């Protein structure tokens, strides 16, 4: 009888502390820490559906995170970050009852090479990249299994999202912040300022081909620097027709498998293109261009078809020009 009570007690303790036990996964390198939390209501996983959640920063957008979960088909959501800890685990755990959650805290190149990280990403049903400093992601993941497995996951249809720095790396082109951040006045004054550091092909998402992203868009007045990014991409021959998506704080752009984008949250998103070289985009000279084409879509609107780059009925034109480094923006 005592043996039976002991087994019952052991089972109860195991159930109560299962989420904590799951956190105690081991990594071969100290540059990788793994935190896991079991699903609140586990169900058999089904194949994921491609989707994107582009979150502008400032605060998480619950609808964006739920969107990732809805397209995951259940299974494990993998959080990638280079600082902080596992605070996204309880957040996703409470929002997405049928998903388990694992945070990979990668703080070194060696951590990005750890087989445990690759294995977790290999079995991911959704991926979310946290904020911080995007150059940590670029310098630690490039050429390593983490980068390989992220791109492999996307290729097999795993939905992916990112906030702030995590959003910055989701386009074909990315502002890497290799030499720290850059303000709009700095970039407009000299498009080839050392701080205007751009990367390409870091993460390969078919729907983000030809696109660069920016976050905290209105609050930090990032329109000017985003225009410079576009001008540089075309001037440097990376694309002859470049596109950008700028997302406000507390706002997200949600993109389905067909490329249909809608805006949720509390702010707006900006969809900007540059179809030809800027009038002046040269080292040491202020930017000049009248060729930018912009659209603004507020939360609650069906904003854009990313595949065709056609605005939805709710998007409003934004008229943009830069003359000798001075930006003028007017709404239609």
Describe this structure in words.
The protein is of the alpha/beta class. It folds into two domains: 140 residues, Rossmann fold; 162 residues, no CATH class. Strands 1-4-3-5-6-2-11-12-15-16 form a ten-stranded mixed beta sheet. Strands 9-10-13-14-17-18 form a six-stranded mixed beta sheet, with helices on one face. Strands 7-8 form a two-stranded antiparallel ribbon. Helix 5 runs parallel beside helix 7. The N terminus is likely disordered.
Question: What descriptors fit this protein?
Answer:
six-stranded mixed sheet; 10 helices; Rossmann fold; 2 domains; single chain; globular; 332 residues; ten-stranded mixed sheet; alpha/beta
Summary of the model, kept short:
With 332 residues, this protein is of the alpha/beta class.
List the topology elements.
Blueprint (H helix, E strand, L loop, with lengths): L1 H22 L8 E6 L14 E4 L6 H11 L2 E7 L6 H8 L3 E8 L2 H4 L2 H8 L1 E6 L4 H8 L3 H11 L4 E4 L1 H4 L4 E3 L8 H6 L8 E3 L10 E4 L8 H13 L6 E6 L3 E5 L4 E6 L2 E7 L18 E6 L3 E4 L4 E2 L4 E8 L2 E6 L1
Parallel strand pairs: 2-6, 3-4, 3-5, 5-6, 9-10
Antiparallel strand pairs: 1-4, 2-11, 7-8, 10-13, 11-12, 12-15, 13-14, 14-17, 15-16, 17-18
Which strand order does the major sheet show? Answer: 1-4-3-5-6-2-11-12-15-16
Number of domains: 2
Proportion of strand residues: 25-35%
Helix proportion range: 25-40%
Based on helices, strands and strand pairing, what is the structural class? Answer: alpha/beta
Distance between the termini: 80 Å
Which quaternary structure do these chains form? single chain
Q: Sheet bearing the most strands, described?
A: 10 strands, mixed
What is the overall shape? globular
Record field, number of beta strands: 18
Report the order of strands and helices. Answer: HEEHEHEHHEHHEHEHEEHEEEEEEEEE
As residue ranges, the low-confidence spans are 1-24
Mean pLDDT: 92
Number of distinct helices: 10
Radius of gyration: 21 Å
